[in-house]
Amino acid sequence: MQDTSLMSIHHTAIISPLADIADGVQIGPYCVIEDEVHIGPGCTIGPYVHIKGPVTIGSENHIYTGCVLGEAPQHLKYNDEETGLEIGNNNIIREHVTLHRGTTHRGVTRIGSHNFLMAGSHVAHDCILGNHIQLANGAMIGGHCILDDGCIISGNATVHQNCRIGRLAMLGGLSGTTKNLPPFMLQQGINCITGINIIGLRRNGVPKGSIIAIKKAFKLLFDDRNPMSAALINIENQLGNIVEVQELVEFIRSSKNGINRIRDSKRGLIMGSDQDHRD
Questions:
Q1: Which candidate in 65, 66, 108, 247 could, as Cys together with 96 as Cys, close a disulfide (CB 3.0–4.6 Å)?
Q2: Residue 208 and residue 69: Cα distance in Å, rounded?
Q3: CA separation for the pair 83, 109 (Å, rounded)
């Protein structure tokens, strides 16, 4: 039996006897913690939070008012199978965030560590989020998506199901993507890349030489005179010794649903002959 004297649980909270609550956890008023919920040490659970297992939550997470974690996936083929939600350590999950369990496709929705999920954001079933990611207010992540470390999804932006957002990429406010957004890229609007996430690269300590190489790779990548396959070969020949450039090339080559286009403010929308990478 757990020693509740080491916890701070409001008397109105409803806690299942089958929940596993570690020492030092604070649980606010009117929370509901159901069966098969594991909450690590040092977590703070705000008022009116509902956690429905199977859910595993690591240490030092701060979950704010009204969040719903581990509810069944919004998927028509889901048939009440036992799937899960896993959350790492030191995450900030603000008001009314919803994180759903996986389906049998992957079995789990996984959130890494040191992420900042702002109010009203949503992560659907079977998603995999890395570390140090920011989802701004109202950001919506569809099912089966992968978000790499350090990416930013701005306010009310949407990521379509089965998409991947690369490391340190940024999807601007009110934007949407139905294709993969390569690492280090900045996107505004629907499926339109607008440049390099220079500020994000600098803030995350990417060396100046690597940033210059990424800029050169960007120009080669979206040169509408060359098909994507040729552009990737040119990038490797000229800049293949830069680790970040290698990461960019590998991401694009592995993108089964293609990558987004670029928008030039002077010439309008530009698209290479096979820029969606379906050579």
A1: 66
A2: 40
A3: 9
pLDDT tens digits, one per residue of 176-185: 999 999 999 9
**Chain mean position to CA 182:** 14
Catalytic site includes residue 11: no
Rounded-to-integer distance, Cα 52 and Cα 244, Å: 40
For the segment 239-273, what is each residue's pLDDT rounded down to a tens digit? 999 999 999 999 999 998 899 888 665 555 544 43
| Residue 80 pLDDT exceeds 90 | yes
The DSSP secondary-structure symbol of 72 reads P
One of 46, 112, 126, 148 is an active-site residue; which one? 126
Q: Does the active-site annotation cover 195?
A: no
pTM: 0.93
Q: What is the dihedral of CA 168, 124, 251, 248, to 10 degrees?
A: -10
**How confident is the model at residue 261, as a pLDDT?**
81
| Of 100, 125, 144, 277, catalytic | 125
Active-site annotation holds for 224: no
Question: What token pair was written down for 188?
Answer: 């505004």
Q: Which domains does the chain have, with CATH numbers?
A: 4-147 (2.160.10.10), 207-270 (1.20.1180)
Q: Pick the catalytic residue from 53, 66, 102, 143.
A: 143
Q: What's the one-letter identity of residue 24?
A: G
The alpha helices in 91-191, defined as continuous H runs, are none
Q: How many residues does the chain have?
A: 279
